[in-house]
Specification:
InterPro entries: TPR-like_helical_dom_sf (IPR011990). This is Tetratricopeptide repeat protein. By secondary structure, this protein is of the alpha+beta class. It folds into 2 domains: 114 residues, Tetratricopeptide repeat domain (Serine Threonine Protein Phosphatase 5, Tetratricopeptide repeat, Alpha Horseshoe); 204 residues, no CATH class. Helices cover 35% and strands 23% of the residues. The protein is built from 11 helices and 15 strands. Strands 3-4-5-6-8 form a 5-stranded mixed beta barrel. A hairpin with a 2-residue loop joins strand 1 and strand 2. Helix 2 packs antiparallel against helix 3, helix 3 runs parallel beside helix 5 and helix 5 runs antiparallel to helix 6. The chain is elongated and about 80 Å long.
């Protein structure tokens, strides 16, 4: 097979050595040194799609999206198969980060995904929508004090967070995060569905809604559920962290772990704080599950504007003052 006048062949030993060394350096976080080696590899074998795929991957790790797009496009130009290549997925991530929607659509279609609306002139250049990818989980701060939360997939590279993350994550309910394409673990359910866990790459769109922590006295689970419904009806969220957050070691978090219900958004679906070796700043453990004694004191996360949050809590108490109480409200993120 001839590409650019050259016969395609297996990469040279020099190419392999430079590439192998580069990925060792990437694993150590030495991106600049790795970049020099991968650039040398691309100079040695410029007709090899893997040369440019590797450079695109490095630029993705560095969040240098312009360079990732450029290298990714060179990689796909050299592909010898029509669909399904991971090179196109990396192009899609870079295009999404840059809001280059025509290229993002082209990338997802070339990978083999259906993108609704591409046949309509008004929608062809717009943001991909209506892909119906369902629920998934995302690991926030994967290199640090990682936390797995639930969300709604907007497209193959973005997820809207629907859990209320712990304040240690620095993330909020309703934020949109850019995530990687290869799942790093999954959450399984007794009914059979399994939900992938993607690693966050970066924040794509912030949320203006602050996160609060409050201590509740809820006599029954129904009292707790009432606050969650009240917040949802107002267009915001409440989550009983005493039930919804569990501690996992990193190895467990990155494996196939059960989720109580698996519908990606209810308080019964645990999200996981998986910083290895210690329980994190809030010390949450899952409690109050099926068959366990109900504990009236609950630590609850609330996502609501400052002008609304106290009214929500007061309204919740007013509906059943004998069984409900709140105290120690604090904005935490």
């Amino acid at each position: 097979m001839r590409i650019f006048g050259k016969v395609r062949h297996r990469p040279s030993a020099s190419w392999r050595q430079a590439t192998d060394r580069a990925f060792t350096l990437i694993g150590d976080g030495r991106y600049e040194d790795a970049g020099a080696l991968l650039t040398r590899a691309a100079d040695l074998e410029p007709w090899l799609s893997e040369s440019w795929f590797n450079l695109a991957l490095l630029h993705k790790f560095r969040h240098d999206w312009e360079q990732a797009r450029t290298a990714g496009l060179r990689a796909v130009a050299l592909l010898d198969r029509e669909a399904g290549a991971p090179d196109w997925w990396n192009v899609g991530i870079a295009a999404t980060a840059l809001q280059d929607w025509p290229l993002a659509r082209r990338a997802w279609q070339a990978y083999g995904l259906h993108v609704p609306g591409q046949a309509h002139t008004a929608a062809a250049g717009g943001e991909p929508s209506g892909m119906q990818l369902g629920s998934a989980a995302v690991r926030l701060s994967p290199e640090g004090e990682a936390e797995v939360v639930w969300g709604r997939r907007i497209d193959p590279a973005r997820l809207e967070v629907q859990s209320i993350p712990l304040p240690s994550s620095g993330r909020r309910w309703g934020e949109v995060v850019l995530h990687d394409g290869v799942p790093h673990g999954e959450r399984t359910t007794a009914a059979g569905p399994a939900f992938p866990v993607f690693d966050e790459i970066e924040l794509w769109a912030p949320s203006p809604v602050p996160t609060w922590v409050v201590l509740l006295e809820a006599a029954t689970e129904s009292d707790r559920d009432a606050l969650e419904r009240l917040a949802a009806d107002a267009g915001f969220a409440a989550e009983d962290w005493s039930s919804s957050v569990r501690l996992l070691c990193r190895a467990c978090s990155e494996s196939a772990m059960p989720a109580d219900e698996g519908d990606g958004g209810l308080h019964l679906d645990p999200h996981d704080h998986s910083s290895p070796g210690h329980p994190g700043p809030l010390g949450h453990m899952t409690q109050g599950g099926p068959g366990e004694l109900w504990v009236p004191e609950r630590e609850c996360g609330l996502a609501a504007p400052a002008g609304l949050v106290r009214g929500l809590l007061d309204g919740w108490v007013a509906d059943s003052p004998d069984t409900r109480e709140w105290r120690d409200l604090e904005e935490v993120c």
